[in-house]
Amino acid sequence: MDLCHVPATREKGWYLALMAPNVKGPNYAWLDPSRLYCHPQGLQDCVADLLQPFQGDAIDMVAGIDAMGFILGAAAAATLQKGFLAIRKAGHLCVQTVAQPYTDYSGREKVMEVRTDAISPGLRILLVDQWVETGGTMRAAIELVERLGGVVAGIAAICMENSEGGKWIQERYKCSHCVPPRLQPRFDQHQ
């Protein structure tokens, strides 16, 4: 798809066609959203669709998950006129942090961390990532926010798969994603 083309009719999720399939193998996500982020109208519509369910909700800060969640989360924070917090893979922050181990979508053991001075008790945080596949990464971010006394105001991702972990998150938190119901089975099966 042309990075300047905007369809005449823009239904929710039209921009999903901008994502590119994985050509590098099983250690990578099955779709890459970076081309969607390059498309000005696609990015704007994606962020608007993600934030629509949270209109009127109390949100104090947006937190994006390393690394693609930084792009989407920062765009959401700018739209909401809120601050942005980066939840990082371990070893990248030079300040005091709290860490949480997790298993990512590929089955690799990792550690995520967040600075300890950014989240105060009761702070309402919208967590943003590009994708919730198995839910392990997002659950680690939830744990970090809640351990520091923050409140998860909601969770937003381009796609939330109907995996066991994805369902666990959707049952417990207000969630938003961009995949129309008719396309959800294709995304769940990575087609």
UniProtKB/TrEMBL annotation:
SUPFAM superfamilies: PRTase-like
One GO term describing the cellular component: cytoplasm
EC numbers for this chain: 2.4.2.7
Record Gene3D superfamilies: 3.40.50.2020
GO molecular function, one term: adenine phosphoribosyltransferase activity
Class of the enzyme per the UniProt entry, highest EC level: transferase
Annotated keywords: Cytoplasm, Glycosyltransferase, Purine salvage, Transferase
Compartments it resides in: Cytoplasm
Pathway as given in its UniProt record: Purine metabolism; AMP biosynthesis via salvage pathway; AMP from adenine: step 1/1
GO biological process, one term: purine ribonucleoside salvage
Entry-linked Pfam families: Pribosyltran
InterPro entries: Adenine_PRTase, PRTase-like, PRTase_dom
Catalytic activity: AMP + diphosphate = 5-phospho-alpha-D-ribose 1-diphosphate + adenine
Residue span(s) of domain Phosphoribosyltransferase: 56-178
Family per similarity comment: Belongs to the purine/pyrimidine phosphoribosyltransferase family.
Quaternary assembly: Homodimer.
Protein name: adenine phosphoribosyltransferase
High-level lineage: Eukaryota, Metazoa, Chordata, Craniata, Vertebrata
Gene: Apt1
